């Protein structure tokens, strides 16, 4: 019998003992999944065509006994809220969100009380007494309103329980515990009506009090048989948790005083290869699972994978595992719910909720969206290809729309689509209308999928899962009118999506089986790969989600974390029971989100090692490169040389030269490949944008004075126009960006202050007798540089902020919004000018002098910088300081020295042998 699967043995018993009356036989299993496998086992066991016995899960069976329909947790919450409103005084009634916070926990406790057939009045008044004792020492005069309400809450629990119980019974619906209690009450009637039927209970482990009563009742009437799948290793060890429940039943059930206990097997102690593998992080585990399967396939290419199971201790490993599987896997069956929280379609609906609830929460008549919410929705993979909104996304980014009204969005998107219209339809009506919009939206998205595309099947499953949730909500809201608020709807949606699961369809009897821990019940596999073997994941740690304290649970016989651990232990050891090759994978990281120490189950296998078990331990670490990253080196190809020649003809700007000095790779990306930065919405004004605004404002104010000397009156006039000009430039440069509040208002004031201080400085200079004539503003100049060392002439071209004639000298000015000190424009040696980035400002201003030299004629030239963050220093002229002499006029000699250095830099840029090499410092 060794290594014969449990379901094969059940099938043999059924055919052998019940073969003549299969139609009157019902087989009850712990879950629905095992049914398919049992039918397959029955098929193998018989040569002739037979009618299958009825095979159902324990929950469905208990519903049949009780004749009550089960309701899901959210519908139950709605029903409970209805009951709560009917028994609570109007002034004490809470909103649905507040109610749901404690009601979910209370419903779980009601469920436990009923499943274990306890007297609800006794348990709930016990809780009230505990709270009374806790507050014993508080004097009457010190009792606050809040404390009184708290005590009243505990007093009301029995009323809540009775009202809800009767309300549900009248509707013929119930939660699990209620159904179990009613099933026990209805047992005699049920067993009389089905006296000719035989029941077989198979593969159970932990039974609650109600299940025990039902099974024992049918056993006593000889209407049922129960077959356990219990291994003697666990059963005979009084301390082993895997046999905790079965040992209790074997000792306490009256049935076993006169009947044998079936079946005790000896499979766990048989020979097994158990490989324990540690790997850092979650993805490492997924990769290892994939490589194990690849190895299994390569060792036996013709073999089937239907006896191989990947059991995920954590459901969020599903997607990484699917991506890690080798392409040779072929057939695959996923039997586990994937959390609705991580569902990509759900993420779209969550973003839609965020966009509209934020719009509704903003005061004012217009329905205003925040640009990030809009872009989140429009760039979602389920929307972007079908909404015809790429042009709108571009407009929002280019025009710095931070807040944008619904009407404006409709206006801006000229090429609309039904999908787009639904996304941005106002949510101003009731919750039902909103749900109808979302439902229509999901149907539209479904239409965009290709029916024959295999890859889109999973995406369709995701959309369908959310569609089911929305339809459920539509049903709830149709029958419960008292909760009609979009915020409440959002809260309920979040709660439902947390418990909603995406179900994947597969071929259960073929190919590799991927499942969660609970789905593995009753099933046997030859090769088992279990992931997330860490404490807190496998077993899942303690969670005290109950109003009933631990000691009270112990006293009343309710399950505590000890029993929950024992259930996990059984599942784990049952997976190993008949398997021959076992791989246990755990995360070696002890800290971090997905971390935890190695599971106690692994230690237990090690400590209680069976003689025939071959247990090995490995740690797999990813290969880490010796260097984090190597600097990029790009050789100069023919195409690169062609592009350089093209730049030489169209013009090298001073900033292009300094970008090469800063990092040759930046120069390569920006100038050779012409890669521009991605256009983003500037929510807060960036420094370069502020610089542009100041430059443009000065140009706007000074333009009328080009070609003439400036008077005090001219500057006085500029002061009057200042506010208007700054606002105009803000609008031109920052477009639709918000400038009336927050940081941008501060930036607006900074721009005004900078220009104001500049005008003040200019006025002082004129008053002190300076004769200033404006020659050019923001003008582009160019000049060809020819030199014997260069392969071809190079055009130097740049935009000069301001050129003026001041007191008989030509002064070329470059504005800087950042801080520049006097020392930044003083040069002590020409040697290595183009090697140091700190000389970038000198390289820039001397380039302007070179370009304007001919136009200056015989007038001496000085070049320099005006730094708005250092205005008190005024004009900072370039100066060459050799020993003690400081020369501030740009002479022919200075330009010659400068050009020699620039030629060296250009020769390097044009040298085909010198690649573009990234600077890492």
Give the SSE map:
Blueprint: H1 6-18, E1 25-29, H2 34-45, E2 54-57, H3 58-66, E3 69-70, H4 73-87, H5 96-115, H6 120-134, H7 145-171, E4 173-174, H8 176-185, H9 187-193, E5 198-204, H10 209-220, E6 224-228, E7 230-231, H11 232-235, H12 244-252, H13 255-258, E8 264-265, E9 272-279, H14 281-299, E10 308-312, H15 318-324, E11 332-335, E12 338-339, H16 344-361, E13 368-370, H17 371-378, H18 390-398, E14 403-405, H19 406-412, H20 418-423, H21 431-447, H22 455-479, H23 486-499, E15 501-502, E16 512-516, E17 527-530, H24 550-556, H25 561-577, E18 581-587, H26 600-607, E19 613-619, E20 633-634, H27 638-650, H28 654-662, H29 664-672, H30 687-702, H31 712-734, H32 742-767, E21 772-785, E22 794-806, E23 809-816, E24 826-827, H33 840-856, E25 861-867, E26 875-877, E27 879-882, E28 885-887, H34 892-910, E29 916-917
Parallel strand pairs: 1-2, 1-5, 3-4, 5-6, 7-8, 9-18, 9-19, 10-16, 10-17, 11-16, 17-18, 23-25, 24-27
Antiparallel strand pairs: 12-15, 13-14, 20-29, 21-22, 22-23, 25-26, 27-28
Q: Gyration radius, to the nearest Å?
A: 40 Å
The number of helices is 34
Taking the sheet with the most strands, its summary is: 7 strands, parallel
Distance between the termini: 70 Å
Overall number of strands: 29
Structural class: alpha/beta
pLDDT averaged over residues = 88
Strand order of the largest sheet: 11-16-10-17-18-9-19
How much helix is in the residues?
40-55%
Ranges where pLDDT stays below 50 over 5 or more residues in a row are none
- State the shape: elongated
- The fraction of residues in strands falls at 5-15%
